From TrEMBL:
InterPro entries: UDP-glycosyltransferase, UDP_glucos_trans. Keywords: Glycosyltransferase, Membrane, Transferase, Transmembrane, Transmembrane helix. It comes from Arctia plantaginis. Belongs to the UDP-glycosyltransferase family. Gene3D superfamilies: Glycogen Phosphorylase B. GO terms for molecular function: UDP-glycosyltransferase activity. The keyword Transmembrane helix applies. This is Glucuronosyltransferase. The chain crosses the membrane at residues 415-436. PANTHER family: EG:EG0003.4 PROTEIN-RELATED, IP04436P-RELATED.
Amino acid sequence: MPDTPASYKEILLSDTQVYKGLSFESVITNEVSRLPFETLVATKVGNDDCKILMNNHQVLHMLRTRPQYDVILVESYNSDCGLALAANLSAPYITLNPQPLQPWQYNRLGINFNSAYVSQSGLSYGKEPWYFERLKSYLLYHITNWVYYVGSQVTDHVYLYNYLGDDLPTLESIASNASLAFVNTHQSLHGGVAKPDNVINIGGIHVRPAKNLPTEIERFINEAEHGVIYVNLGSTVKDSTLPSDKLKELLSAFAKLPLRVLWKWDGANLQLPRNVMTMKWLPQYDILKHENVKAFISHAGILSAIEAVDTAVPVVAIPLFGNQYGNAAALQDVGIAAIVFYEDLKKKYLLDAINEVLDPESQHRAKLASRLWHDRMMSPLETAVYWTEYVARYQGAPNLQPLAPKIPLYQQLQLDVLAFVGLVLYIMTYVVYKILSVLCCCCCRRDEQSEYTEQRRTKRVKFE
């Protein structure tokens, strides 16, 4: 980190960061198998990170000397190991989620999950799922929670015994006691879910003022008579692994467009249409800020989704992994995205989606969404600074923490109250039933008695 203040100290956990990237062959199109598998992979990475953290000699020295901190900020995504370290240092701690909320984070934050209106970040069902989508969402929510519990919390807890002692509380309880949770979203994009006061949206905190574009890129964009489409399918998957049939479909679609195409491509040299330019790296936000960029073909990663809304550029979303599906659905719900799933990546569907987002109505909705995104009392950075200092001022700000995570499940669901109400209704129904039965019996006896009396009178008259 350049130009650091004198009070800044950095501990490098690893000086050999090797990232090989994934292949397009790793894309799993069936969410029933994809979500549990991706959760398991994420927890395995979290387990490895926990071992790197706790094996660092400077971290171990920190545990022995126990320096004083006002606030500890900890990333919270695929492991709660860092939270355990923060809790052991006896200081208020804030969790930072670089993505939208994960299924295993709802309960700890006191958020009630309901598949009818709470969307999961790994699913593309959006805000209005139909019945079978709600059913799958409900089942996958509990399955991924179980996978995370076994793969991350149980595994990390056993490992942390060696460093933090046998009396270490459960990682879920440690996570539930966080003072705040910073989440990289905003209600204008991922709205519609009731959250406690200590869940703070800071979506867009990474965005900085746009810089001047390199000359070659700026000339390519400026000279585009009909505008430019920017293409970037992310850095998680290596472009060079794109299957030849999918690559052919992309190039065929681009060749049909009157617009120019600027494509982040790190694979081998291609036979490109005349309107296409590729580079191994591109300044994405600076490009999206250019007024001649009309659409963004993206994998819908959270940073790309944020930058698209920030710059009012509609999106053709091709989600591949994890939260990209939920981000694509959120963009579509806002009205500024068309989704083309990877298995449907063909020239026809891609051109249809491009034409949809190039429509003036879609462009108008993108500008409206951007205004909503920017309409805040404070910037994301100012928001994060304010609430961090708030936690420091009030020793963890316990007044913001929700009670729901500390209440047993049967009380959260009000099962005891419903059982009492059900018992009262049963007793009242039974009493009413008995009263009606007695009245009916009395009426029947009177009718029988009257009928018997009438028959005797009739017989007597005949006899006389």
